[in-house]
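User: Show me an example of a complex going from sequences to structure tokens.

Assistant: Sure. Here are the input components:
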Amino acid sequence: MPQLVDALCAQSGVLSEGWNTERRWYLETFDGRLAAAKQVLSVVKRPRLGTEIQLRTLAGETTEQLTSELAMPQFASQFRPGRMQLRLAQITLGRALLPRAVGQLKVLRCQCQDATGKLLAGLQLEVGRGRQPRVVLRVCPARGFERATQRVLRPFLALGLVVPLKADAAAPLLQHAGLARCAYTCKPLIRLRPQLAAAPAVAQVLSAYTHSLRANEGGIVADLDGEFLHDYRVVLRCLRAWLGDLKPCMAQPPLRALRAGLTTLNRLTGKLRDLDVLTRQLDAYLAQGDGMTPTIPLRERLATCRAQAHTELAAHLKSPVYRSFQRQWTGFLAALTAGKHPGRGSHLPIRDLVRRAIGKRRARVLAFDPALAQTNPSALHELRKNCKRLRYLLEGFALLFARGPLRLAVEELKNLQRTLGETWDLHVHLGLLTRLCAEVPGGAPLVVVLGARLCSLEAQQVVLVVAAIGHFRSPQAQRPYADLLARAA
Amino acid sequence: MMTFATYNLKGGVGKTAAAVNLSYLASLGGHKTLLWDLDPQGAASFYFRIEPTATKNSATLLERKRGLGPAVRGTNYPALEIIPADLGYRDMDLALGELRKPNERLGKLLAPLAADYDLAFIDCAPHLSLTSENVFDLAHWLLVPVIPTPLAVRAYTQLREFCERGKLAHKKLLPFFSMVDRRRQLHCKVVTQFAQEHPEVLHSFVPYTSQVEKMGEQRAPVQTFAPSSPGARAFVALWAAICARVGLPNGP
């Protein structure tokens, strides 16, 4: 790096503004909409210089900058009205912006000028923190001066001091700048020794997932983005599933009270999530209608129900009952880690216990009779739950198994699970819409139109489910499972 | 994109200085700003250390299939870009006259850039022509620097009458005094009288100072090399008055 700094400063027409330290956050939506739109959004805080928000294209073609008083924007609407707000609103479509990586950088800013003092390019040397700090030279040519900038950079390239990044994507930038990814991930991967006793190993995984659960509470209460609730529910279902699937390593008496707490949470969050998904899907369903029946009362009723469900959930999350549940849960995890109240299988190696659980769940999935798919939605729902629980075991304890077969096993399962999920959504939405339409004046014609449409969609979907079940039962799809369990053994 | 044009029928009234300094201040305020140097003299481009381009003739310029995008150049200031002057502008009126709907041509050229910028400033040449009418059509506001002398006031009155006669929105006019020397009795008298007759005049004015003249030597907006000078402070106050009048947020 000193070589590069010397070379930069020795270059005629390069003026250095000196080193500075800045803190940088990279923001992204839950579902990676910015990355999909090939944009990188970062918030840069510089001592004395204030906050700057940058929205750049991945190819580094455009740099847009905006100083702002905002501490950390969470929505496009919180940006000052203007072009950046407009562009972000188009990209994020109401999704919350979450910090995905954060770090401190030492930055040397230089201005590369020609003989008349005209700025050709802004050069920025960024040095991350850590034992082996990576260095990124960011070159931002002034518009119309790209060729002149190339001429300035040629010596650096010739000396081998600079290696061009093929694409100015966030991932290599973060890696080179040594920025740490934010701690939050919905499904944290915990490295466990396969021979570790089951009880403390399960406690580690449950603790990590509990952290993810708590990370989403604030977002749900504030009703920032539906994805907080989605992540919360994924973690909640994982915890519930593992309390059942891995119960041999846990003492039973404390489990009963905890299960009751988790069931309450599942009921409250499920109600809100169903309404969220219906809100998202409603336009698609109504697009199939006659276009004559007024839909505003239905939409209003749906919004009211959603608001009520959210109020109920938020009140629960802020209630003493929930705090008491949290205390119980923390105590349970501490006891599990310390080996208090052991279950009959606490001494088993974690890999053996998980393997048995996977074997059982897989057997239940395979035991499903496809003939029931046409006639029994509850049976399909049970199959869906079994698939989910199997996937949670595979993903939550992924590092205990060989990567290749695990990936294939999850892929096969995902296909089936997606089809089942879509079918169940239609079933739930039909029930919800029937109830909602009954509650609004003049909703009867809508029930007829939407009911017919959803029933027809459900029938089509069931055909797909039967095909997906058939595929999942095929030897080809089952091979990764056989490999997985054999290798684990 | 909100578009301002600095225009006066009379030359040497400080149009270019106003365009350069106001566009710079707008960019400092967090607005992504474009300055279009429409004067073939190229003074605004010179202030930003950019050489004017030399297209063969205006017909080529007006027929740009890719719009003005490729002509845009970055300045030394982050949120400010410029379309430099072009020698081809000298016969723009002739070229415009041969086209259909000649009054809308420049607006159509600028339109594709609207998504990229918050504000645009156009520095016009001092004449009343088809080019000027294009600018009147496309600009949301016409910033008219007026020297407090009878001739300059007459030029403003002529412009106002022209706008009213031609059904161009005279409400777009934002006159302000430029190069005011408060030691001169005539200047003081004209300023008072003009303000009474034209309530649309902005109450901030630009004094006659040597620092503004030094812009040619420094080749930069006055705020960058003499930020506390009376000239620099006057432009800051003028930009604040403009923002208040047109409803723009002033400052990041």
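The lines above are the inputs; the final block is the predicted structure for all two components together. The longest helix of chain B spans residues 230-246.
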